[in-house]
Write a structure and sequence with these properties.
CATH topology of the largest domain in chain A: MetI-like fold
CATH class of one domain in chain B: Mainly Alpha
Order of helices and strands of chain A: HHHHHHHHHHHHHH
Radius of gyration of chain B: 25 Å
Helix content of chain A: 55-70%
Oligomer: heterodimer
Number of strands of chain B: 2
Low-confidence stretches of chain B: none
Strand order of the largest sheet of chain B: 1-2
CATH class of the largest domain in chain A: Mainly Alpha
CATH architecture of one domain in chain B: Orthogonal Bundle
Largest sheet of chain A: none
Largest sheet of chain B: 2 strands, antiparallel
CATH superfamily of one domain in chain B: MetI-like
Number of helices of chain B: 14
Structural class of chain B: mainly alpha
Strand content of chain B: under 5%
CATH superfamily of the largest domain in chain A: MetI-like
Shape of chain B: flat
Shape of chain A: globular
Mean pLDDT of chain B: 88
Number of domains of chain A: 2
Distance between the termini of chain A: 34 Å
Radius of gyration of chain A: 24 Å
Structural class of chain A: mainly alpha
CATH topology of one domain in chain B: MetI-like fold
Largest interface: A-B, 115 and 109 residues
Helix content of chain B: over 70%
Strand content of chain A: under 5%
Order of helices and strands of chain B: HEEHHHHHHHHHHHHH
Chain lengths: 301, 308
Amino acid sequence: MSIFKRKRHSGIHYSGINPKGYHPSQIKFYLILLPLALFMLLPMAFIFSHAFKPPDELFAYPPRFFVINPTFKNFIDLFSKMSSSGVPVSRYLFNSIIITSVTIVASILVSSTAAYALSKKRFKLKKALFAINTVALMFVPIAVTIPRFLIIQKLGLMDTFWVHVLPALAMPVGLFLIKQFIDGIPDEIIEAARIDGANDLYIYFQIILPMIKPAIATIAILTFQATWNNADTSSLFINDESLKTFAFYLTTLTSTSAGANTVAGQGIAAAASLIMFLPNLIIFFFLQSQVMSTMAHSGLK
Amino acid sequence: MVNNHIQRESKFKLWLTKEGSAYGFISGYALMFIIFIVVPVLVAGLLSFTLFDTIQFPKFIGLKNYVTLLTQDDIFMKYVLPNTIEFAVIVGPGGYILSFILAWMLAQLPKLPRTIMALILYSPSMTSSVAMSVVWLTIFSGDQNGYLNSLMLNYNLIQEPIQWLQSPQYLMPIMIIVTLWSSMGVGFLAMLAGILEINPEMYEAGSLDGISNRFQEIIYITIPSMRPQMLFGAVMAIVATFQAGAIGVTLSGANPTPQYAGQLIVNHIEDYGFLRYEMGYAAAVSVVLLLMVLLFARVANSLFGSNE
């Protein structure tokens, strides 16, 4: 076992947790992680490759994983297509972009204001409310689809833009992560501002918000993923085709009734999948360091 | 009397200036939280004691839905419950342990390769089952043109193409693999961050205390030092597991899934709620699901929760 023992007493360490550079002891981890990462990458590489395949490659036998003659044909077909009910595909995409943007902004505002109060304000129900939210981390939305359906019906939210936005704002994980992050800001900063005569709004906008950018980035990503990928809202609560989302449109392409395996369908579905997937990746890529620094505060005690 | 009134009013004003703004800040979130989480859970609880077909007003029938669920619902007892438990036990703890091991191994690498690989491992979890269904349907397609079939035919592993997603014996394993593939989510990132946060001096102290290998180090130092992140990761894993229930229907393209092979409790709710309109009964199943989540979370809490 002594080979596992590491030198940790030197100033700059090259082995062990969070090393500063390469060390031979890391080889064994690369040997496990690299093949695994490549394997996990395959389905995503497949979306990329598939989306750019011309029809003869999509249906070639034997099927090929990688595209040989990439073409934008699938994307052009996708956007020149109307759904079966006459709504152009660009409309679904437009809906998704607007809905996702509005939801992200609203979610940041709603969660961060609540988190500020739960972290820095003093009031009676503070502990109880945070405890309730912590229990709600275990909430599985899919379990209460039916009561939600009934409530949304009663509130007259069916077939409205807001039904896409409002349910997404109740995100216990979001509130939890921001609150934990704000806990890391020393109370003295806020007390000092208060002595200088700052009110709550000033403190929230001018002091708290600029200091919790990583947490906000994290909430933005989580909200983005939940909203952008959401097809259920459109299928359950929206009848008006022109209010449905791109994710929903994709489900109509892949459901067996619409014929995922028809010649035209597959190329379009692959292109649409890539459009669904790519923004997730891009956003996370740019915000990942912020997310990691938020996650350091994520502990549940 | 007047005096009293003034006193009360000033008390209210005092409260308003002291605590009012706090409640103001919370109000937006609280409202959404109540409407879309608290009330639905309460309504599910209430409806579970009723007969409700969405047209007539719910009729109170006591525990009958639960009794039926436990004694007469053959599909629930024979397929849904065993499937859900199998799926949850493998995907939940399995995905969780996998997340921890991968996070721990990533933490042994320098920042750049670590970040790149963390991005790769995390990215499946941000793909929606919707976006990925195209991939799975193509890979597991039942004709000889399916990628897996073609590959296996090519190497003579099989003689005939297999209907992967329509065969009861393959659907569940495929569901598990697909879900595990996407299980390195928020909890994984939290655990990775947790491991990186541990003070290196802890390890030095540990080696002085006689910890001699990496495995002991994980058990005695790493995990105890990051219990809060372990618990957070566990809760996220549990939620993701039960939330992933729709995967069988997405893959097979049908609810119920072929011979109920991939039928999970979530599909059962949908089946009764939206296909048969037996909302009261579906609500009872929802309550059972919520209780299962709580049960799993309790186990996680007893493993990693603080002892105070």
